[in-house]
Predict the structure.
Amino acid sequence: MSTHTPALAPEGRTGALPAARVAPAADAEPSAETEQGTDAASATGVAPPTRGFLAKATLVTAVLSIAGALLGLGRDQALAHLFGAGTETDAFLVAWTVPEVAATLLIEDGMAFVLVPAFSLAVARRARGTTTGTDPVRALVASTLPRLALAFVAVAALLMAGAPYLVAGLAPGLPDPGLAVDCTRLTATCVLSFGLAGYCSAALRAHRRFLAPAAIYVAYNTGIITAMFVLGGRWGVRSAAVGVALGSCLMVAAQAPSLARQLFGRHRSAPETETAAAQDGAAPLDVPEVGKATKTPQVTEATEATEATDDPVPSVKHSVELALIAPVLMFALCRQSQVLIERFLASTLPSGAISHLNYAQKVAQIPMTLSLMLCTVTFPVLAQALAEGDTERARSRVERDVAVASCMVLLGAAAVFACAPQIINLLFQRGAFTAQDTAATATVMRVYSVGLLGHTLVGALVRTYFSAGRPTWYPLAAMAAGIVATSWIGAGTVDAWGVRGIAAANAIGITVTAALLLSGMGERRSVPIRTRRVLHELSKPVRAAVCAAVAGAFCASRVDSPELALAAGGLTVTVVYVLLLRVLGVKAVAPAFRTALRSVTRRLPHVRFR
């Protein structure tokens, strides 16, 4: 288990919010009143969310993401149980490359980095009421959705027609390319449905609706699992490809009603929203926080002139520009090419190598997916801060997100490393999945765990580059450097180390990218964070995770029963990690935990389905 905002523009530039003065020091960091939802509205007309709101949104997103991840494990368990880790499964996993790449480009990274800021701009203009008869959100949908849908259809058709060439390029050593071609043609249909699902998710998140977008992978994996069990006896592994097509359609169906209500329903006025939030004790999860009355408005002359003279609808329409889209999509495609490199190299190894890599990667990445939930929720907040020119608030948000996400993923990485054999044994070792498959997959998963921090840092940092609202190719260059490292190291180690060499290349390559992104943070490219301070703070949970992983692996190895070994290893990792964080003085997690706990103990009528 994952964006940018239009920049402030001088005269003559479109696709930007009106210029706003940087908030004074008192407003740079949210005060206690702000955290309770009573501070003044921002210049965009959409009030900054309270910590309680962010905690609730993160909680809802995390719960549904965990449910989706568990169903994803169930999907992989069903695949392993029904089809094992052999030629047939390898063929499907080559076809699985299409939905993996499509999800990265259209849902998790690529298109979201472009559309969330564009919709945030449209929502802000709607909240300010500066339009003259035309709803800026509907105008944005009308100007972008038809063309994007046509592009998705064209790409899906091209993939279906070129499936034989795609399979030959992805896995030239595959024993059964015909089966892979059939599966690829079925999975290619997800390009359209993933594109529509990603569009809906971006629009809803910009409206601060997180429930439906967080539920999409629950619907997706439910469709795949159902198709495998219903059609697996007759169609074999092709049933999993049918499930991809079915599940991707369910992703759209899960969000369409909520988006329709945002586009065509009645929108609350500012007093109504403020009253509802006050009654509930915090900002509602599925109600946008429109501008509240300010005590001392600090709108500059530039803002007033812009509001008086600019036509907001054209600005919104032109906020999705090719110059912004191209580097975002190319970065997402370059990042996903790591998987393509792995499968290309593994296709020359004995049968089952691609399957071992797939199962290990799916399990190992669960901690990374969960750790990035906070960044998913706070992305519109970061985009709003940058749009207002409040770099201090943006810097604080980025540093806090990096600290919390890193602490979370390192705990998961330590647990994965310590208990890898037991995890794979309990999850997959049944049916056609043998003990030899368990041993090979667990070894690969331990190697993957070393790169989880790099994956998390890339996911947390790259959105800050694309939130600046101006074209930047630096993230693509950083990702390309990581891909080069992955390719060279993988090609040099695959003969001697097999799948372990491929996994090590992945871990090293993504770590190189993360280091480059972190070193490149600055006002010219991104948010100017305090890099040395961030690195110093990161070193503390890294040291704690290493010690916890070693201690957990030792305890787990002393117990024969997989269940008891997993419990012993997991408990040891958690206790050692938390104690060392306390000894080392890591303070990033405790405030977030307290805020989340307070939010859970309050009433939760805010999580609405509309």
Notes: Residues 1-45, 268-319, 595-610 have pLDDT under 50 and may be disordered. The longest helix spans residues 391-428. The chain has 28 helices and no strands.
